[in-house]
Amino acid sequence: MSEGVLGLDARLARDAIISDCSAGLTTRELFTRVSARLRPFVPFDAAGWLATDPATLLYTDAVTDAVDCAAHVRLFENE
Predict the structure, then answer these.
(1) Listed residue (27, 67, 73, 62) closest to 47, CA to CA
(2) What integer pLDDT is reported at residue 2 of this predicted model?
(3) In angstroms, rounded to a whole number, what is the distance separating the alpha carbons of residues 70 and 74?
(4) Which tens digit of pLDDT belongs to each residue from 1-44?
(5) pTM of the predicted model, to two decimals?
(6) Residue 49: which residues within 8 A CB-CB, separation 6 or more?
């Protein structure tokens, strides 16, 4: 059976993310875990995970990785 382009490690990471999504984690815990699991396959200098209210499409929470504090202010002021 082919493991696809990224191989077994990517498949295991995907399965772990699926498991995390149904584990009853808080939004922040889920975003933190998913970010760490994705990083080896999708390298990034900085990342932001935003919880969004589906009725207003406004941010309700955020988890960031290597994002400058000044950037946070600019993002929220933009909203």
Answers:
(1) 67
(2) 55
(3) 6
(4) 455 666 888 899 999 999 999 999 999 999 999 999 999 988 88
(5) 0.72
(6) 31, 34, 35, 62, 63, 64
Q: State yes or no: pLDDT of 74 exceeds 80.
A: no
Contact 63, 48 (CB under 8 A): yes
Rounded Cα distance between 68 and 45, Å, is 11
* Residue whose tokens read 């290597």: 66
Instruction: Return all residues near 61 (Cβ < 8 A) that are at least 6 apart.
Output: 27, 28, 50, 51
β-partners of residue 50 are 62
- In the block, residue with structure tokens 């900085």: 46
Residue 41 CB neighbour total at 10 angstroms: 13
